Amino acid sequence: AAHQETHGFQTEVKQLLNLMIHSLYSNKEIFLRELVSNAADAADKLRFKALENDALYEDDGDLNVKISVNKDAGTITIADNGIGMSRDEVIANLGTIAKSGTKDFFNKLSGDSAKDSQLIGQFGVGFYSAFIVADKVTVRTRAAGENADQGVEWISDGEGEFTVADINKPGRGTEIVLHLREEEKEFADSWRLRSIVNKYSDHISIPVQMWKDEVAEQEGPDGEKIPAQPGQWESVNKATALWTRDKSDISDEEYKEFYKHVSHDFADPLSWAHNKVEGKTEYTSLLYIPSKAPFDMWNREQSHGLKLYVQRVFIMDDAEQFMPTYLRFVKGLLDSNDLPLNVSREILQDNKITQALRQGCTKRVLQMLEKMAKNDKEKYQSFWNEFGNVLKEGPAEDFSNREKIAGLLRFSSTHSETDAQTVSLADYIERMKEGQNKIYYVTADSYQAAKTSPHLEIFRKKGIEVLLLGERIDEWLMSHLTEFNEKSFQSIAKGNLDLGDLDDEETKKAQEEAEKQIEGVLERAKTALGDKVEDVKFTHRLTDSPACIVADEHGMSTQMVKLMQAAGQ
Ligand code: ADP
Ligand code: MG
């Protein structure tokens, strides 16, 4: 072939291929889901580009995917008339993994394939899943709007290299031929493929078609003639966009498969919310909470956001404008009736409709979480363990929903004495002592350090619960939380600790007596410490330790000082 080159796969692709073949042996059929999903994406992308340039349809505007089988040759072909790829795109898309941070992710894998295969769930397996069933894959593609001679052929056995060559391809789009492995020949069967499409790809919004052989003229039961039917392409899926359908007609399985398609995730979602909103702003949202945090959740540069449609037409992936950053783990889509079809990221940036949609979507997610916390504690706990630290960014970012978010937070506390974060503020308030009017907490470098803080002594003695905060983000969180349910928060390591009505008269008297007895000690400590301290005071908050350091009521806490130092301030 013309201009043939051989390329090596990126190291991470080799690792992924290896891992996949070992971990997905019980779930081989998903290769078809992935390839059909890509074909549907390619159709979406073409439709979007054609909004500006109708000529890209090349007189072939019926976008679809065609699946065919050659039993004798042991091949399956998946062909679409979507956007197609140029030579450079083929090399980049089918030879590397685009996500940044992938290298680190793979370096962290243990080499124990059982363990590692769990991790692969966070990773869309995508195109490379073709090699689960095929020992050779041929991709023939031509980008929309290019001449027939701009076709590209990509061939690989999935072992480490692939070739690319120029070909002639009159039809626009991408055709993928899977040469089935000897032991996977069973997939070369129309009925088998049909049932796989029904199972995984029914929700795909363009027709997924398979060839139906001609049927000869027949005689019916009453001797009537049933005319012959020519062979034809027949749709095997519903071919309507899932989110436009009625909720009551959509099964959980369909919602789950749709999630995998839009999120490129491999695992089931934890929960979802599907809503049609009519009135001043009209839109449909389908929002999912993943079950596992992606490996790159802390990389703020990593793409996130919703898939945006306008009047059913795909507009863009990863539209970040519709979700606040503290909900960046949410996946799904938004279909707006109000935004213009030619909307761009710039237009979205500063737009009234965007704001309304963002508020609406935020509200939906918080509601979904509230419901989950109320109705399925175990599920909520698993959400919290994965995403709790992201949600903690909420009170600082989203003033208007501060109280709602606070209600969703979970903490460790002296009540449970485990590092599991299970205590809600409502739980805490319910257990508050008679006369207690504050929510007490302590922040430290770790749960362990918080738990052993000397500041806790008096609280332990009095049986007052204290929240134990040991995560990095906690200090930041607490600096933005002032009250919950009309109870203010109080760090037990800050300033003069006033236990208010919790101290009775008798105790106070005894304390004053005690202070008098050792008056001179204060002066001596002050002289000895000199400039190193602001002040030295008596305290009654300690029961076992002789002394402790406290931060000024209005100044930064010791934790915050450390955070600032770590950030290079
Ligand atoms: P993902 O779908 O998550 O992006 P895949 O591994 O499934 O990852 O596909 C990698 C990329 O290859 C896609 O993002 C797309 O750019 C390209 N691609 C795959 N299949 C097709 C296709 N049928 N038509 C056009 N581009 C495709
Ligand atoms: Mg894909």
> Helical amount among residues, as a percent range?
25-40%
Count the beta strands.
21
**What is the arithmetic mean of pLDDT?**
90
Strand content: 15-25%
Structure classification? alpha+beta
Q: Give, in spatial order, the strands making up the sheet with the most strands.
A: 1-6-5-4-7-3-2-8-11
Rg calculated over all Cα atoms: 31 Å
Count of helical stretches:
20
Coarse shape: elongated
Poorly predicted regions are: none
Distance between the termini: 60 Å
Ligands bound, unique:
adenosine-5'-diphosphate, magnesium ion
Sheet with the most strands? Answer: 9 strands, mixed
Characterization of the model:
- This protein is α+β, with helices and mostly antiparallel strands.
- 34% of the residues lie in helices and 20% in strands.
- Strand 5 and strand 6 form a beta hairpin.
- 34% of the residues are buried.
- The protein contains 20 helices and 21 strands.
- It has a 9-stranded mixed β-sheet with strand order 1-6-5-4-7-3-2-8-11.
